[in-house]
Amino acid sequence: MTESRAVRVELGDAGYDVLVGQRLLTGLGDLLAPLGARRVHVFEDAGLPRAVRDAAAASLGEARVSRQELRLDETSKSLATLESMLHGLASNQLERTDLVVALGGGILGDVAGLAAGLHRRGVGVVQCPTTLLAMVDASVGGKTGINLSTDIDGRAVMLKNAVGLFHQPAMVVADVGVLSSLPPRDLRSGLAECIKHAVIAQGGSGDGLSLSEIESSIASVIGGDWASAAEFVAQNIALKARVVADDERELARGERPGRRALNLGHTFAHAIEALEATRVEIDGRSVHPTHGEAVGLGLLAACRLAERCGVASGDLGSGVAGALGQAGLPQRLAGGAEPDVLISAMRQDKKSQSGSLRLVLPTPEGVIMMDDPGDAALCDAWRAIL
After folding, report:
1. 340 in the Ramachandran plot: left (φ > 0), alpha (ψ -120 to 50) or beta?
2. pTM of the model
3. What gap in Å lies between CA 337 and CA 279, rounded to an integer?
């Protein structure tokens, strides 16, 4: 285990550290020892190399360890998977003083966190994210959830994270070395959330995290310079930690964005993800976008809407497009939906009220909240990526 940087999420008695470094998972037992758990149940991502999973489990030492392997995607981020996880916790007799370890990507972390929050009305969870997307976003902040597939107006729709709760982790351990095991597409997808954070930090609170300074960091991540990548990951986590500490349960209202700032681009992205027919062009193939790819597209649509509403110039959108291009992320949908269908899907977002949207828009000074601008403006925003 090497040295790690600790980023504190300041939530009073519920505060916790996010440890960022290399080769942390081989020393996971030492990191968790102060938490004093007698039993540890590990939910582990089947896509993670077996050697990494075995080393993490072996490091837990004297704790009674049970392990449950899962292979999850957005369609299996479901009630059935949640039930399977709850059975795993019950059958291994986890008590409230024990620990759940979520070892994997953001989907596994979301469902594992929800299972931990529900089992015996709450057991501790340690998030060990193994994708860039999970490290800089999903593992920090305590949001958990599953998707809900349903029919709305005769159309099959998957409602993202429609069932969930807030359950803050006891600790987050982000071992950037495991990013070397990711397929290139997954690694690049995680960069979309980093670009989002850089846009949020435009107001000057990003500790060096900005669109103008992100190019070298993107190159470090893609090039596998994990020492430099660790600092970049820590910068992203620090920004999210500050936002979460200011508005843990997303209760900010009115003009203050609070935690809603982190939804930048996501109302557009969730609409893209919700429609199974949407496609992007990746390596010459037409495929359904990953979450990160959808977020990148959502950022571009939000920039276009901000330009139309007069709160940002086209330069901001150009900067975002440049960063997405450097990250190798798509900047257009390759088909699958028209603006009216996408707008309808937007209005099913869990943050809309009576079909009326409250959107996060980027500006040169950070982000602002804006009431539903109407279908004409939304259509224009969607056409920027069609």
Report:
1. alpha
2. 0.92
3. 9
* β-strand pairing of 99-104 with 171-175: unpaired
**Tens-digit pLDDT profile for residues 328-357:** 999 999 988 899 999 999 987 766 666 689
The DSSP 8-state label assigned to residue 11 in this structure reads -
Residue for token digits 């009305």?
A: 121
| Pairing, β 358-363 against β 366-371 | antiparallel
Separation between Cα atoms, residue 229 and residue 20, nearest integer Å:
10
Pairing state of beta strands 155-163 and 171-175?
Answer: unpaired
Using CA atoms of 25, 31, 36, 37 in order, give the dihedral in degrees to the nearest 10. Answer: -10
For residue 178, the tally of other CB atoms under 10 A from its CB is 24
177-180 long-range contacts (CB < 8 A, ≥24 apart) are 177/22, 177/23, 177/24, 177/226, 178/25, 178/48, 178/52, 178/130, 179/130, 179/131, 179/132, 179/221, 179/226, 179/229, 180/224, 180/226
Q: What is the DSSP letter of 206?
A: S
Strands 280-282 and 171-175: unpaired
- Which whole-number Å values give the CA distances from 118 to 148, 155, 177, 237, in the listed order? 17, 31, 31, 26
Q: What percent of the residues of the chain are helix, what percent strand, and what percent coil, each to the nearest 5? A: 50, 20, 30
pLDDT digits (tens, 9 = 90+) for 75-90: 899 999 999 999 999 9
Query: Strand 171-175 relative to strand 16-21: parallel, antiparallel, unpaired?
Result: parallel
Residue tagged 């950022």 (tokens): 299
d(CA 113, CA 224): 29
DSSP letter (8 states) at residue 289: P
Q: What distance in Å separates the CA atoms of residue 165 and residue 222, rounded to the nearest whole number?
A: 34
Helices (H), the chain: 28-32, 50-58, 79-91, 106-118, 132-133, 184-200, 215-223, 226-246, 266-274, 291-308, 314-327, 339-346, 375-383
